[in-house]
């Protein structure tokens, strides 16, 4: 979440006189003004289209395909269908043209910032730092995504003129242009130009994936060493990621070299098929998922896990049967499922609900409290109360695995995490834990990266304290970027983080509340 404001707004401009030499800054201003005018025109077109879905949805004749005796719609035609398809086509072309303008502006901005940093004496290893972060804020995407887009944009703008021209004309999509750029990124400029010229006539006629495949094939013909380098580069990107799918499921994805990925899948498949042949009632997919968990963790059930799980929930949800949404590693979780994780048992069973939580009340707060439940060997040194995990629904947790409740507090008006049981001078221990639990992910606007650093909002050198109020969780990229010349951070009264970039733009990111603010009394 985040908001942004610009130090100066684009104003309508006029074209430069014939033969006039317009400076780069003036060209940029005029381009921004024209794009702003284009945005207004698109907004007007969107306003004209807005009523159409509602009208067609309520018109039974059109919705049901019913026609009158003359072959027309029973209640009269509400629109020109060819015009609507034209709107779709033109909008797609506008998206491609806008993407081209965005890439060229991003590449130009990168060059300008690096020149300014070099003039300011920034070390060579730090040149370009902060560029992707500022572009990300402008585009409302993550810094990593912006960095990748800038890298591909440089390939397209600087070494693929034919592909760039097709994109600028709206003849191909940004996706297709990116696929070509990925395929030639390890080639020399000369070989990139050859691939670009060879493929240009075919690009408007093929899909984005096909465009990438053709580019890879031609690149391999021109430079096999570069093809091997590209393969090694792709292998270096192997990783494991996780993202939520629903309240109770996450998707853990492994990006592996082909041989390893096939071997993993084959082993899981073989085990599942063997189990089903012996009468296992689980589906093949269920058995593969269960086998993956047990082989990676060495455990048979998640209840046996002796690891810390950061589960953030209010005392009302834990002890009073409340419906306040809990948060597990930044993902929303229904209160009933959260109680199950903390207290043991299956959701809805006796021993997993509010009644089972009564025994934990010694550490519960009756108003505004919130618990960060942790399970495992990392016992809470401050105000922790152990809760035996048990169940009356057939699931038994080993006696040496316990749940612990760490006391935290939420603001009674806003629901924001306010304080922890102890304070320390350094971003370690309880203070660091407080910041991590409060922010949950990078506080940079539109960045949901994992917290790698706790950043001093007011720098230590400027007299800033190392307290929870003066600390925010950030990813590594943002923490390094805001230390570059021209960047600054400040905290507003409600805890909102304000980031100012070298161009003077301000971006705000409020702290995520643990729960929705209480409604004002009537």
Automatic annotation (TrEMBL):
Any coiled-coil regions, as ranges: none
The organism's taxonomic lineage, starting at the top: Bacteria, Bacillati, Actinomycetota, Actinomycetes, Micrococcales
Domain annotation DUF222: ranges: 99-302
Annotated Polar residues bias: 389-398
Bias (Gly residues) ranges: 353-371
UniProt-recorded name of the protein: DUF222 domain-containing protein
Biased composition (Pro residues): 510-522
Annotated stretches, region: Disordered: 353-398, 493-522
Matches recorded under Pfam families: DUF222 (PF02720)
InterPro entries xrefs: DUF222
Organism: Brachybacterium nesterenkovii
